[in-house]
């Protein structure tokens, strides 16, 4: 693996020591433990090796400084270090580490060890605590993933920074470096309290509603629907700040990498599930309420060449099945359910089930929030229930054509 004039080789030492990565740069070398996570971009981040300690030396010195016992009384012995000198030494060691691995400087080598750093972490963050516990368990069960889990989760001090690192590494290319993307994501996520809340509610939605989602950790690391949604939240914030070109660049990368196309101007609520995500299209003036579940292949699009407000408005608690197409500035009422493969061209009433091409209301849903139960199959029992419910009502109530 080569990056510019630098190259990274892996070699084995004697049996008592772990294998090492060797960094070559103009006849200078830097040896790194193989267990330490190493990404291709790090080679580009390394400066002159003659100006740095080896990572092993730096970490050993940092550990020694932390383990030193501070004197209980005044410093009468000049050989004993003062607390000020100890603190200064620790900061010097930390800066040396950050110069070698600037990508990991965001997450710190010891998470939560420096309370003076304004990380933007949430006090009493139960979801972030659960993610860290799950990551540690997975690292123990699958040691081959330990470096990946450390780099992605355990090296960071809050959920926002971990998410920024994960998404940046998935979206990076030769011209959009992950360090640049991570700076963008961190700047938006850490400072925006609304995004703090939305990230956690979305993560809970994926964990609760997707039966294939094993844990919070797996949703955070692997599910592209979640990654697409959080990238949109950042792009939407940038769009509202007037940074429209950057927002569109993020939309383009998400479309390329995840096959999900969400315009950065679209407004999306909290507690959203994008199940699978593949083929999802959401237009510029679309609005999606809270606790909505969207399956793969859903299109919330416009019709014709009209400008202005031209995309659907989806209420709270709506469940939209796979490959549904909703066109035009129409309203999907709260708690409605759209069956898979339907084409919706007119408004859908609240708590109703619509199906067909073009879609028609075939009944009403007793569940107040069908998006939470994810039951979107029109079974025989459902139609029998609808037939019983029709007794005593006018036919017009159930022959509403969409």
From TrEMBL:
Start-end of Low complexity biased regions: 73-88
EC number of this enzyme: 2.3.1.30
Gene Ontology cellular component annotations, sorted alphabetically: cytosol
GO MF annotation list: serine O-acetyltransferase activity
Biochemical pathway: Amino-acid biosynthesis; L-cysteine biosynthesis; L-cysteine from L-serine: step 1/2
Matching InterPro entries: Hexapep (IPR001451), Hexapep_transf_CS (IPR018357), LbH_SAT (IPR045304), Ser_AcTrfase_N (IPR010493), Ser_AcTrfase_N_sf (IPR042122), Ser_O-AcTrfase (IPR005881), Serine_acetyltransferase (IPR053376), Trimer_LpxA-like_sf (IPR011004)
Alphabetical GO biological process terms: cysteine biosynthetic process from serine; sulfate assimilation
Family: Belongs to the transferase hexapeptide repeat family.
The protein's name in its UniProt record: serine O-acetyltransferase
The organism of origin for this protein: Lactuca virosa
């Amino acid at each position: 693996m080569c990056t510019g004039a630098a190259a990274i080789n892996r070699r084995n030492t004697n049996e008592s020591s772990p294998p090492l990565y060797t960094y070559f740069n103009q006849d200078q070398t830097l040896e790194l433990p193989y267990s330490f996570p190493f990404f291709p971009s790090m080679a580009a981040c390394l400066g002159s090796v003659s100006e740095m300690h080896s990572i092993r030396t730096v970490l050993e010195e940092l550990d020694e400084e932390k383990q030193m016992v501070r004197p209980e009384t005044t410093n009468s012995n000049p050989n004993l270090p003062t607390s000020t000198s100890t603190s200064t030494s620790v900061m010097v060691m930390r800066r040396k580490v950050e110069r070698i691995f600037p990508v990991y400087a965001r997450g710190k080598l010891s998470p939560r060890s420096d309370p003076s750093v304004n990380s933007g972490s949430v006090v009493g963050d139960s979801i972030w605590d659960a993610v860290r516990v799950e990551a540690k368990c997975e690292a123990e069960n699958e040691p081959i993933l330990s470096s990946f889990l450390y780099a992605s989760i355990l090296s960071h001090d809050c959920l926002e920074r971990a998410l920024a690192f994960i998404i940046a590494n998935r979206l990076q290319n030769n011209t959009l470096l992950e360090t640049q993307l991570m700076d963008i994501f961190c700047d938006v996520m850490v400072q925006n309290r609304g995004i703090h809340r939305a990230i956690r509610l979305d993560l809970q939605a994926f964990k609760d509603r997707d039966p294939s989602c094993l844990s919070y950790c797996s949703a955070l690391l692997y599910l592209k629907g979640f990654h697409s949604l959080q990238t949109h939240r950042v792009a939407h914030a940038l769009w509202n700040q007037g940074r429209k070109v950057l927002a569109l660049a993020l939309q383009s990368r998400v479309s390329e990498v995840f096959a999900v196309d969400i315009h950065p101007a679209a407004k999306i609520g909290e507690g959203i599930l994008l199940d699978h995500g593949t083929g999802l299209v959401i237009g510029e003036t679309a609005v999606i309420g809270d606790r909505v579940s969207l399956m793969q292949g859903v299109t919330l699009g416009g019709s014709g060449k009209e400008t202005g407000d031209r995309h659907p408005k989806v209420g709270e608690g709506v469940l939209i099945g796979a490959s549904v197409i909703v066109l035009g500035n129409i309203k999907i009422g709260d708690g409605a359910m759209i069956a898979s493969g339907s084409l919706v061209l007119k408004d859908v009433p609240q708590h109703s089930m619509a199906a067909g091409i073009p879609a028609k209301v075939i009944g009403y849903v007793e569940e107040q929030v069908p998006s939470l139960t994810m039951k979107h199959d029109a079974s025989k029992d459902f139609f029998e229930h609808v037939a019983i419910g029709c007794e005593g009502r006018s036919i017009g109530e159930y022959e509403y054509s969409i």
